[in-house]
Amino acid sequence: MKQSSIFEVYEEQKGKRRFLYTKSILKGNDVYGERIVNEGNDEYREWNPQKSKLCAAILNGVPNIFLRKGDFVLYLGSSTGTTVSHVSDIVGTEGLVFAIDIAPIVMRDLVFLSEKRNNIVPVLADANMPETYRERISLVDFLYQDVAQKNQVEIFLKNARMYLKKGGYALIAVKARSIDVSKRPGEVYRQVFNEIEKSGMKIIDKRNLDPFQRDHLMLFCKY
Amino acid sequence: MSYIFSNILGTFIIDNNLKIIDRVVYQHASDEKRLLLKHGAVKPDNDALKSILGVFKDRAYSEKFHSINLELTKAGIRDSVTDEFLVIEAVHAIDDITKVSNTLMKRFRGWYALQNPEYEHSETDNEILLGNVLKANTVKKEKISMGAHFSKEDIEPVMELGEKIRVLYRLRSSQEKYLDGVMGRLCPNVSEVAGALIGARLLVHARSLRRLAMMPASTIQLLGAEQALFRHMRTGARAPRHGLIVAHPLLVSAPQKMHGKIARGLADKIAIAAKVDYFRGKFIGNKLREELEKKFAA
Ligand SMILES: C[S@@+](CC[C@H](N)C(=O)[O-])C[C@H]1O[C@@H](n2cnc3c(N)ncnc32)[C@H](O)[C@@H]1O
Description:
heterodimer; A: about 220 residues; alpha/beta; seven-stranded mixed beta sheet; five-stranded antiparallel beta sheet; B: about 300 residues; mainly alpha; three-stranded antiparallel beta sheet; 15 helices
């Protein structure tokens, strides 16, 4: 196990395959059935790129994910917490992840997860209405969005405007088919780039998530 | 000048340098007012708000953010359980029970037919067959039968299986009765026009009463026939005339050539019923149903 080029992310090379891990802040617990590797006093949870777009983006070569120990994160579309749990490992006990999802059924699992991990704050809310959680969260260093909604870019920009600090970083997983099924992905993406850059946000990196997730693009932005 | 800001942590007075100069931790509307008067503070505009939110980006508040949001989210999850969830679970339970009882009934028939193939062959209705076989001495064997003679010991497990299948049939009908009740509460009009089970299936497909109420009749007509519809668009195969509503008594009893027309009429009335239910209007289900029956009943 060695530290990868990305902060708080670890890796192992086995033959041609590269495996990623995060160091677990809560020993003796897997979150979604992932493999756990013990080394010395530490425990590492394998990060599955089929199940987590952030992991797929790293394996596809992003040089930096701009996420640091101690960061406050706003995570939109947390679902049952697969990726959230790795983000929680990365920011560590000094950091905090506000995890928002609109669906009560998946939120249930997130509540169970947050009861064990103190740095995950579950918020049942609609990311399309950021003013409804203004009293429940703080400003953040980092915004992560994966909501598969038609107006996902609008949601992203609204939340950044309200909650992301100046100079903070923001990631959005764009799913072409949820924005417009009739257009080709390339065309949808171009429209997304325009919309984001018009808002004053800078796009620093674009990653296709093939072969782990089809027709998905991960955008890394600076506010 | 100072700002007043409230969140789940409390009510705060924050000065120009973003220092908290006064606070009430457990807020009441009256606390907010008291602080407001005491400091003559103003509500922040959007720019100031963002800076103030930054004040709370601090580890000192993490624990409180965590515990209070956990409670709020638990309450939110609790309050989100509506009759729609109950309908969805009940419909799935009914489908599961049907699947399981059909599978077991096939096994029962095969097993029982070893002793009495003639009767098993002659009775096609599962529930009647089961009822008669389980009632002692009601089913006679033909004089010259292909059935083997079974010892008491070999008959017993077959009968025990049959008993359990009968329990499943009863379970299914009590769950249907329950579904009737919930549907009557949630959407009495849809339930009256479509029938509780079909109505419930439409609801499951639409995912909520709200979405069902917003659907045009033409969509409701084809709800559940999406695969056939896509096949039609892709290959030019015949367009489907109906989806889930195909099981409605008016369609089941009608000649094929009337199906398109009846399906359209039925979907029209269901669409009206769903809107009335969603907006909690009066009960007009019986009127809608009578209109349909007058027009289409054989
Ligand atoms: C593709 S899943 C996210 C998977 C997750 N990011 C992970 O990697 O583990 C999308 C989630 O977005 C949620 N979602 C969709 N619309 C939303 C909205 N308007 N506000 C909040 N969450 C939303 C869905 O409930 C779903 O759980």
